[in-house]
């Protein structure tokens, strides 16, 4: 399953080549350097996918806002289920000292106290107990899949509330017997992980506490059933994900035409850089149109995706088309930032004491682990990077000196140690040459990953200086490529239309709109 930290082939879990071919067809006219301007006006997405609209923005009604919110929720949920193999629904604990937690405790305790007083009365009253059995019956029936008719009939027969009411009128209700049947039935329906909970229910003596714990375990079983359903539909959702997400986003776009505003800005930034680069190499007069036709949409998009690895979410809004993967990309960028720092420290160490470390792979591994541990959480605002770098420098000197002593050699003198600590501390400074070098090489590696058709099966060679983080870099590169490739498949038609509009303005979009209305 992609995106879960393993290098897997995208073709196994993601949509087939027929899906990716739609992206290729949408971008074909943009990638052909010799195509005419008219080739950019072919229809690759619907009319509503235009990045901007000449008409003034309209005010959405409450129902329209709720419809858009519902579509966004559906899109995000479907995407998360499909791409995150570890996605599951969990019970959210309520803090006991919170107002909601205190109110909930008081209300629940009052109900169970009332139930206990009813059952202990002379003669016993069963009004609330019958309501509980009716609710338990419905929950148990909800766990049954098609074909469980025999057990369904049995549950309805034993927990027949009309019969229990008749028995209550004659004080003949066997509360403990009903509870034992419920526990036994729960044992047949629950997941193996709930067997211990079922055993605890069987040894609980107080009938009120038994009923209370029955509802607790039933709540856990509901979550188990939801997560089982999620796992069951995941393969089907993965197969239909591209079409489903694209259609859902199209519905959002029809309600809110400005839904591609930040996506357009994101692509425009890379397009402007590419046009500037091409114009600098074009020496012939009147080469502007030729420059526009020479733009490679794949290069522009890949450069846009690379910007996401250094995206400042505090200053810029994430592109709308990548909202479903925003958290994943941020986590990936944070891990990449940590690996970048580890590579910088390793390069400094090798430059200063490389002769000592030669033939000592254990030492290099120890230094890498020390750096990784001390740099954990380095992307948090509260993290003291300067202190962490100083600690890593001290530990590096200790480990190197220890190795030297074991080999019967002189330890590092004070000057070398001070120089090493100083270079470690300077890595965090803006414009540090070592940081810039490693950053450029990692960007080059990630760019080469995006250029491979199947990055999971054939990763590109790692540039010099990155060997120490090669394994981790390949894993992150594989995850990154999976995110990008799926995003291209889903939103390729929208990107093609945005590029067409940015390159040739309103005229191209008007032709697309006319073509859409006549078809």
Structure explained in plain terms:
Residues 17-26, 36-52 have a biased composition (Low complexity). Residues 1-59 are annotated as: Disordered. This is T-complex protein 11-like protein 2. It holds the Pfam family Tcp11. InterPro entries: Tcp11. Among the domains are: 99-234, no CATH class; 329-486, no CATH class. The chain is extended, with a radius of gyration of 32 Å. It is 69% helix and 0% strand. The chain is built from 19 helices and no strands. Helix 8 packs antiparallel against helix 9, helix 14 (326-357) packs across helix 18 and helix 14 packs antiparallel against helix 19 (470-518). By secondary structure, the chain is mostly helical. The longest helix has 49 residues, at 207-255.
Task: Lay out the secondary structure.
Layout: H1 10-13, H2 17-31, H3 62-83, H4 99-120, H5 127-142, H6 149-158, H7 161-169, H8 175-189, H9 195-202, H10 207-255, H11 261-281, H12 288-293, H13 297-307, H14 326-357, H15 361-374, H16 385-406, H17 414-426, H18 433-450, H19 470-518
Helix pairs in contact: 2-19, 3-10, 5-8, 5-10, 8-9, 8-10, 9-10, 10-19, 11-13, 11-19, 14-15, 14-17, 14-18, 14-19, 15-16, 16-17, 18-19
